[in-house]
């Protein structure tokens, strides 16, 4: 079970309270987590990355285990604490003002 | 008793302002989609409970919202706007070719007779259509592809398609306007297009009377006389009596002919409204006086409307999609400002009062007249 934390504006959009818990089949990569997230919440399609698995939106960041994973290959396996559910995968709205 | 519902898009959410036919006491609902930019909210003429809203943010891009109950509840629908085929390039600010990239939806125009059909004007300039209530969007690529598209350049606010007018008397005829390309007309439901800018003069472009390249800010039409069009251009208020084939200036005695919105009285096709703004550098009313100007002669002769509007120290702007009229017997006129005020006049502009004073900057105002 993977734990995902979304920024508040996307929780509101998808009508989510608190963390999301996802079951990911196969290797736990950023791409696989986002695929599972968008399958459960189609409203989020296009708001985190491009449609159909496109690139990360410029002002969205991916953190986990105190690391910035935003620039990693999305098919790289996530750290073990994330894939085991001990640590959440954080989808963050960059500090961009507005 | 009949009433009105004013749909307000702002920099940080949408608001719905409701009143009975007297338009004296208002209920304010919102913010809906708090924190998001709401470029436009508009209701279907065929079903007043069906609303569409364009919601976007720098973080998460575009979302389209739909309501089936007049704005009480909303659901997100499709947000995939993909240009048809190989999108190609337009001109960038420095004159170099720039790939067409979707940025946001500026304007949503529901069909006149089908609540599930809606058009979207987008940045970078393109026209999309949905026939399933906003779930799926398809580009009407004949507009970008008619020939002049590669020469279009963005205005300061981005290269946006901001105006869509549907001719109620001639199925298939529609108009679109783009900053800074100009006005365009289709007579076949948006499949093919032609520029309709003859008569426009723009000093800020190399060829002042070019076929395309004009910074058109807004078009307006009265449904009973759709061959007559009114235009607020970057500078100049213009009129066409032949569906855009030719234009002539009707700025007349306006204190300045720069501005953004233009609209037409619901029952008097020759009565039109503009909000003069000092200049392209000074986006506020002349002399700090917020004045709507009304012409009852289809242009050229204008009178200032000031009763109830601030006449000193007012330095707000009124954006292109931020004026609307209702169709009650005594036509109501509405506009919103970048200072967050929404003003209403229940008597065709003679007197004004603020409905709200302190919203986020207002991007758009539409009004529905309810039975």
Regions with little confidence, pLDDT below 50 for 5+ residues of chain B: none
Strands across the major sheet of chain B, in which order? Answer: 3-2-1-30
CATH architecture of chain A: Roll
- Alpha plus pi helix count of chain A: 3
Assembly level? heterodimer
β content of chain B, as a range? 35-45%
Largest sheet of chain B: 4 strands, antiparallel
Order of helices and strands of chain A: EHEHEEHE
Neighbour order of strands in the largest sheet of chain A: 2-1-5-3-4
Treating each run of at least 4 consecutive H or I residues as one helix, how many helices of chain B? 0
The total of beta strands of chain A comes to: 5
Q: Distance N terminus to C terminus of chain A?
A: 34 Å
Radius of gyration of chain B: 19 Å
CATH top level assignment of chain B: Mainly Beta
Mean pLDDT of chain A: 95
**CATH topology category name of chain B:** Methylamine Dehydrogenase, Chain H
CATH architecture call of chain B: 7 Propeller
Task: Give the tags.
heterodimer, A: 98 residues, alpha+beta, Ubiquitin-like (UB roll), five-stranded mixed sheet, 22% helix, 19% strand, B: 371 residues, mainly beta, Methylamine Dehydrogenase, Chain H, four-stranded antiparallel sheet, 30 strands, globular
């Amino acid at each position: 079970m993977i734990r995902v934390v979304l920024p508040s504006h996307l929780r509101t959009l998808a009508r989510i309270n608190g963390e999301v818990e996802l079951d990911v089949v196969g290797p736990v990569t950023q791409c696989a987590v986002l695929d599972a997230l968008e399958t459960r919440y189609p409203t989020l399609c296009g708001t985190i990355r491009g449609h159909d698995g496109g690139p990360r939106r410029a002002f969205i960041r991916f953190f986990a285990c105190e690391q910035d994973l935003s620039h990693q290959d999305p098919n790289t396996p996530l750290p073990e604490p994330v894939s085991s559910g001990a640590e959440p995968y954080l989808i963050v709205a960059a500090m961009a003002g507005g | 008793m009949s009433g009105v519902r004013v749909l307000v898009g702002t920099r940080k959410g949408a608001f719905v302002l409701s009143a009975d036919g007297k338009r004296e006491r208002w209920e304010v609902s919102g913010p809906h989609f708090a924190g998001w930019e709401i470029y436009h909210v508009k209701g279907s003429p065929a079903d007043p409970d069906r609303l569409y809203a364009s919601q976007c943010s720098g973080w998460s891009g575009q979302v389209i919202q739909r309501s089936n109950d007049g704005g009480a509840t909303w659901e997100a629908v499709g947000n995939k706007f993909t240009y048809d085929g190989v999108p190609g390039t337009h001109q960038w600010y420095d004159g170099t070719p720039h790939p067409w990239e979707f940025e946001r939806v500026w304007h949503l125009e529901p069909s006149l007779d089908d609540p599930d059909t809606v058009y979207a004007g987008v940045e970078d300039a393109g026209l999309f259509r949905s026939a399933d209530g906003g779930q799926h969007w398809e580009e009407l690529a004949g507009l970008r592809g008619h020939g002049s598209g590669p020469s279009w350049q963005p205005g300061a606010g981005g290269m946006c398609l901001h105006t869509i007018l549907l001719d109620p008397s001639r199925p298939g005829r529609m108009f679109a306007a783009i900053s800074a390309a100009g006005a365009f007309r289709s007579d076949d439901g948006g499949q093919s297009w032609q520029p309709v800018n003859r008569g426009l003069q723009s000093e800020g472009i190399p060829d002042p009377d070019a076929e395309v390249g004009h910074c058109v800010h807004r078009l307006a039409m009265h449904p009973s006389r759709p061959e007559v069009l009114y235009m607020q251009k970057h500078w100049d208020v213009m009129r066409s009596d032949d569906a855009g084939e030719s234009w002539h200036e009707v700025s007349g005695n306006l204190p300045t002919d720069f501005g953004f919105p233009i609209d037409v009285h619901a029952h008097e096709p020759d009565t039109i409204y503009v909000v003069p703004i000092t200049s392209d550098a000074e986006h506020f009313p002349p002399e700090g006086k917020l004045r709507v100007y009304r012409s009852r002669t289809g242009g050229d002769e204008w009178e200032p409307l000031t009763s109830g509007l601030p006449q000193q120290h007012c330095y707000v702007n009124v954006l292109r999609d931020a004026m609307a009229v209702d169709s009650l017997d005594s036509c109501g006129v509405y506009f919103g400002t970048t200072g967050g005020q929404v003003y209403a006049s229940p008597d065709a502009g003679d007197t004004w009062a603020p409905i709200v004073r302190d919203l986020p900057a207002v991007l758009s105002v539409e009004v529905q007249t309810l039975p």
